[in-house]
Amino acid sequence: xxxxxxxxxxxxxxxxxxxxxxxxxxxxxxxxxxxxxxxxxxxxxxxxxxxxxxxxxxxxxxxxxxxxxxxxxxxxxxxxxxxxxxxxxxxxxxxxxxxxxxxxxxxxxxxxxxxxxxxxxxxxxxxxxxxxxxxxxxxxxxxxxxxxxxxxxxxxxxxxxxxxxxxxxxxxxxxxxxxxxxxxxxxxxxxxxxxxxxxxxxxxxxxxxxxxxxxxxxxxxxxxxxxxxxxxxxxxxxxxxxxxxxxxxxxxxxxxxxxxxxxxxxxxxxxxxxxxxxxxxxxxxxxxxxxxxxxxxxxxxxxxxxxxxxxxxxxxxxxxxxxxxxxxxxxxxxx
Length: 335
Prior knowledge:
This protein is an alpha+beta fold.
């Protein structure tokens, strides 16, 4: 059974107060974050299907990295960041012709970025926020001359609302919003302040410095993440602007729970309660007791995964013979 934050608050209220806690939401989020960091749990994997324009795509906030991927319906080979720097290797995609033996469907990890999209030209920004308390945002980057610059945003536009005729009734239209005076060539860091009280997500649009009518989504930030980041990937053999269909399995990095309707990533409250008790025991200098609670939480989640994996299913060997599902492995003979 899955639980919402509201259900967890009601069920764990007595346990939290008994151990000297004051902010139950903070305790639950801290416990969930600690559980997620123990190991790559199966329950923290999500399957996503979406379209993108190649060769670069970005995972949504809260997804720490890819586990598997299919590009245009075919399984792709996952590669780490060191793959691009191999001696006599593929180098930078897609600027050079690939050596013989390299698979044409490699998905290469580009690492972390503070924004979801990186405009090809210098840009300024316009900022929007949902209803509620919005955090302040600082963007750091470089301007077109190469000098470091920063932009602090604490005032946001309201999202536009249109009636059935398409007329604007509330908020500010994205095309009419006033862009910032600061111009970026690249953004390399973002930070949020006031996240303890914040409840509203914030979003930024990039405004082309050469054509102010060209405005594209840049990023959207969760209000409780003080240093946001996004995992980016590049697909080998895909031309710039070429549309691709992606089916991926990714590992979650759970975002903080804010609203009572938010769903916990684990389908039980026992490990969350034990992690709250473990935190209290550690603060009380009872390290051995804290470790017992942590071990109990881990064993509970391991047992739940064993239960979920116990099902009648056919086992298929992904062999590398021609015509088999593993035939793609033969395309990497040079690796």
